[in-house]
Design a protein that fits this description.
Length: 295
């Protein structure tokens, strides 16, 4: 882990997507954070030691899913599948599939495995799985403020973790993202199609790896579709009640940060520290992992 000295920074970005507004000052205390995304090898140690079964491996209880036919109550995760053609860039069902049997040991479903991928980020995990791992180590998931502060690596106000230019021909690619036309064709100019082993790209100013791209990472916070104006300087983020009010449901989504190998300039471009996206509870995906923090 890496010690991050606390400090005050500008969280959010007024010039990018609406959900990143309003940019506001936040102060975080010092904390430890994992240098890299939690890997398959690390998750395996947790599972071996505790017998923990991830959500994507558990049988689904019909009581929790009233009205869903039993044959659809099969555990799995959401897996990216490049489409042959594309009608629009709105309907994500063209490139996301719920795959029964997809879990952290089977990243793209039955028949796939993590053999030779011990240093890849663990994926297809639900928020509660990530939290269970963190708590086993006496840690937590980072708050969104902690995560964003750490991602910026001391470059307060920069668009990217490394500066203001997405691509510098001299420095080369700084993160595992998607080059070419998403979701049809990944030109793989950065050398990696899909997730890469952790730490294939240069660290940020705090020595942290893959704080942009590779896989998204869970933050601890509930998601609201903007940074709430009050309290402006609360590093804990909005509480459940506030997020539930925004979401109109008792179980709002949580925040994910950092973007992934699927983020492309023509689509989400969320490989920026201010970028954020909601992820529903109880569902893992092939482009989402996590890292932990300790006080
Ligand atoms: Ca890539
Ligand atoms: Ca990442």
């Amino acid at each position: 882990m890496v010690w991050i000295e606390g400090g005050t920074f500008i969280m959010g970005d007024d010039d990018e997507r609406p959900e990143e507004r309003a940019a506001h000052e936040v102060t975080v205390e010092g904390f430890w954070i994992d240098r890299h995304e939690v890997t398959n090898a690390q998750l395996a140690r947790f599972v071996d030691a505790t017998g923990y079964v991830t959500l994507a491996e558990r049988r689904l209880d019909p009581k929790d899913h009233p009205g869903v036919p039993p044959k659809l109550l099969v555990p799995g995760a959401v897996v990216f599948t490049p489409p042959d053609g594309l009608l629009n860039l709105v309907d994500f069902r063209q490139w996301w599939r719920y795959v029964p049997g997809a879990d952290w040991r089977h990243p793209t479903g039955p028949g796939s495995s993590i053999e030779g991928k011990q240093n890849h980020p663990a994926v297809n995990l639900a928020y509660e799985d990530a939290q269970a791992y963190a708590r086993w180590l006496g840690r937590e998931l980072p708050t969104e403020a902690q995560w964003e502060f750490a991602a910026r690596g001391g470059l307060d106000g920069a668009t990217y973790n490394w500066g203001d230019e997405y691509y510098d021909p001299v420095a080369g690619w700084r993160a595992n993202t998607w080059q070419g036309l998403f979701p049809l064709k990944d030109d793989v100019e950065d050398g990696y199609s899909g997730a890469a082993p952790v730490g294939c790209f240069a660290p940020n100013g705090y020595g942290l790896l893959d704080m942009a791209g590779n896989v998204w990472e869970y933050a601890r916070d509930w998601y609201v579709p903007e940074h709430p104006p009050e309290p402006a300087n609360d590093p804990q983020g909005p509480g459940l009640a506030v997020a539930a009010r925004y979401a109109g449901t008792a179980t709002p989504s949580v925040v994910i940060k950092g973007g992934s190998y699927l983020c492309a300039p023509n689509f989400c471009a969320r490989y920026r520290p201010a970028a954020r996206q909601p992820q529903e509870l109880g569902l893992g995906a092939s482009h989402i992992g996590f890292r932990t923090v300790a006080q």
